[in-house]
Design goal:
alpha/beta, 3-methyladenine DNA Glycosylase II, Chain A, domain 3, FAD/NAD(P)-binding domain, 5-stranded parallel sheet, 26 helices, 20 strands, elongated, binds flavin-adenine dinucleotide
């Protein structure tokens, strides 16, 4: 009995062993040994922050190609490097990603909550549409704080979330739960390539800035003494804070809400303070760049537009080379704007810091003569940026314009910029009312001439910066308003002796809103002159785009500028992009710098994603409901004025810089005048030492 039972058991055991042996052959699942190796180096927190179910799932994701070496959100670079090594990948240093809160809050002007028992942002948003004045702002219930497994977010004193960059793993949980899109996960590339969207927290100054600089953020950083942070913020939008801090006519300030109280905040003065702080320390702050891609891009023209495009391409990891026809870079910053407004040594220092990033330069290279789009392609350049400015002068089309002693203001200023003899006379007449005319006139004063500036409208219609007009008046430039040249009178040797002009009167406003000047018949008058400089406008010199048979593969607009898509700046040739004066016609440095970044963004997308694109909710116009007409509950506070470095009499014989930077006390006063606006919120009267949320975040990066 016992024997038969044993035999049965043995039989069952043997049969089971056979079945298992066969099954193990049939059902065998191979597990890639790298899964265990990868799991072994992950942080082991099983936090799920990566989106996979625990570290084991993440390891399988890496090995199956569903996740990258940087899958572990808390492991950082060292873990990513180990994972990459297991996978046989080359590990390039990754960009640090971080949760970014784009709602500054402040002591909200209209902070209307209706809780009705709901204490979750998503529920609040779904049930009551947020019921707060600002349609984009933070709802303040801290659902993001609850979602963060790493303790990286807390609600700040102003009921806006504050991120601790040291703890943030960029897992994205906070961004996912925020119903307003106030939080996003960003690295440097995302920040550089971001264009203003209507859903961003755009204070009026930020909406108006053609460079899209995050002005409230850098003002707050300067206020908190974080000057390096402020420069980092500025340099994510423009590469030349030293130059722009000196020459920008600051359109941002025209939209500043503080202007409804007393005077707009001196935004550009604050920017200049931060930029001068770095220069006075004598060392360029390090500027991070993405890992090298080796993709070659040709940048034609080394003015602000080209420099900006090359700078951002480099920061995005590409290999730009600037082709410039003149001996030095800078464009009109160097060969137009005079030394007393922007010293060449400062421009040189700024450009040096940019080129140090690893940007190639070829001087003395004239596009259309020394190289073409075809030769660039043959050299392996995959994309081209064209930014050759607007260097062709408009002519007066009057008798005698060809006389000796008649030249254009830009030719004159370029000669001065190059240190050449200008042959300027004793009595000069400058014709025009823009920046070029004023710069020519003030430069003439410094070269010892008696200067009259002739303009066909009145002072109020002059397009030049008001500070420049006032400077010219102080230095003794005489103004002849409502006067238009009708003839240049020459002597027997063909040299100019007089300008004949006709008096004008202002009529009805034209399409631009300015009153049109009309001649007064029979009012011709002569004014003596041995040099005449015309400054009545420029346009781009586009003949370089045409080949020997007169063909042009690009599109020329009816304003004689280079045609391109307004948002991507891509031209009729998919690999060719443009920006700056060549695209807009004569404009401003800040516009050229802004277009340089936009073009770099498009080129980056062209190289890496097959083509440029842009979000559907781009901010193109000022957002109407954010444009207030009054700002209650804010007390008056005097605006800081920059010091004059040279007194008025001395100015007439020196090219030394006129305007200095604000002192530390003045910059503190000026930053405290900022109302810390958001879309609909602003600070009412608050003490100077209000919290410095943005600076705290940036400092820890
Ligand atoms: P540019 O600065 O003109 O640079 C174009 C570059 O392309 C130059 O370096 C040029 O040498 C190069 N180039 C040209 N043709 C070729 C070619 N065929 N091949 C290779 N390279 C070529 N703006 C302000 O905001 N504030 C001011 O106070 C102010 N003052 C001004 C004063 C003057 C006298 C002038 C002329 C302009 C002023 N502007 C001012 C306007 C401002 O300077 C321009 O809007 C800005 O420089 C445009 O930048 P850009 O790079 O498009 O062109």
């Amino acid at each position: 009995m016992i024997t038969s039972s044993v035999l049965v058991l043995l039989g069952i055991g043997f049969t089971s062993a056979v079945i298992l042996a066969v099954a193990s052959k049939l059902l065998y699942v191979y597990e890639d040994p790298r899964i265990a190796q990868v799991e072994g180096v992950l942080a082991g927190a099983n936090c799920g922050g990566c989106g996979f179910a625990g570290c084991s799932g993440a390891a399988q994701g890496v090995v199956s190609g569903k996740a990258g070496a940087n899958v572990c959100v808390i492991g950082g670079e060292s873990v990513a490097a180990k994972v990459a090594a297991i996978m046989g990948l080359e590990f390039a240093s990754m960009e640090k990603q971080i949760a970014f809160v784009d709602c500054t809050g402040g002591l909200r002007a209209e902070d209307l909550y209706h809780y009705r028992g709901v204490s979750d942002c998503r529920a609040q948003s779904l049930l009551y549409d947020g019921s707060k004045m600002c349609p984009e702002g933070c709802l303040g219930f801290g659902t993001c704080v609850k979602s963060c497994q790493f303790g990286a977010i807390s609600m700040g004193p102003e009921r806006v979330p504050v991120v601790d960059p040291a703890l943030c793993t960029a897992c994205g949980a906070c961004a996912q739960v925020c119903p307003r899109g106030v939080i996003s996960i960003q690295g440097m590339t995302a920040r550089i390539t971001h264009l203003n969207e209507t859903t961003d927290c755009l204070a009026p100054c930020r909406q108006r800035c053609p460079g899209q600089i995050n002005i409230p953020r850098y003002i707050e950083q300067v206020k908190c003494g974080d000057y390096a942070g402020a420069l980092e913020t500025i340099r994510e939008r423009i590469p030349m804070p030293l130059s722009i801090g000196r020459v920008c006519p600051h359109p941002c300030e025209t939209a500043c809400r503080r202007g409804h109280v007393d005077e707009p905040v001196g935004i550009n003065l604050i920017k200049r303070f931060a930029a001068d702080w770095e220069m006075n320390r004598g060392a360029h702050a390090p500027i991070p760049c993405a890992p090298d891609t080796g993709r070659k891009v040709a940048v034609v023209g080394g003015g602000p537009a080209g420099i900006s495009c090359a700078y951002f391409l480099r920061r995005l990891g590409h290999a730009p080379t600037i082709f410039e026809s003149m001996p030095k870079l800078g464009g009109q910053l160097r060969y137009g704007i005079p030394e007393y407004r922007l010293p060449k040594a400062i421009l040189d220092w700024e450009i040096e810091g940019i080129l140090n990033l690893g940007i190639g330069v070829r001087h003395g290279q004239y596009f259309g003569r020394d190289f073409t789009l075809k030769t660039l392609e043959e050299e392996g350049f995959e994309a081209v940026f064209l930014g050759i400015g607007a260097w062709m002068n408009l002519t007066l089309r009057i008798e005698g314009e060809d006389a000796d002693g008649v030249a254009t203001g830009t030719e004159f200023l370029t000669k001065v910029g190059l240190g050449m003899d200008t042959g300027i006379g004793k009595k000069i007449v400058v014709i025009g009312g823009g920046n070029t005319a004023i710069d020519t006139a003030r430069t003439g004063v410094r070269l010892g001439s008696d200067v009259t500036l002739m303009y066909r409208r009145t002072r109020d219609e002059m397009p030049a910066n008001i500070e420049e007009i006032e400077g010219a008046e102080e230095e003794g430039v005489k103004f002849l308003f409502l006067a238009a040249p009708s003839r240049i009178v020459k002597d027997g040797n063909g040299h100019v002796t007089h300008v004949e002009y006709i008096k004008m009167q202002l009529g009805e406003p034209d399409a631009s809103g300015r009153r049109s000047p009309a001649p007064i018949e029979g009012s011709e008058t002569l004014i003596e002159a041995d040099s005449v400089y015309t400054a009545i406008g420029q346009k781009p010199e586009l003949s370089c785009l045409y080949d020997d048979s007169g063909q042009c593969t690009l599109e020329e607009t009816r304003w004689r500028t280079l045609g391109a898509h307004p948002d991507t700046l891509q031209t009729a040739l998919p690999h060719v992009f443009t920006g700056g004066d060549m695209h807009t016609g004569p404009a401003l440095v800040i516009i050229a710098l802004g277009e340089g970044r936009k073009a770099a963004r498009s080129i980056h997308q062209y190289l890496t994603e097959g083509g440029p694109h842009y979000p559907s909710n781009l901010q193109r116009q000022l957002i109407p409901y954010t444009m207030f007409t009054d700002v209650p509950d804010v007390g008056h506070r005097a605006k800081a004025k920059p010091p004059h470095l040279i007194d008025c009499d001395e100015r007439k014989c020196t090219f030394g810089e006129i305007e200095g930077a604000l002192s530390l006390d003045d910059v503190r006063n000026e930053t405290a005048r900022c109302l810390r606006c958001g879309l609909t919120c602003y600070d009412r009267d608050i003490p100077d030492g209000s919290t410095c949320v943005a600076a705290e975040c940036i400092k820890k990066r």
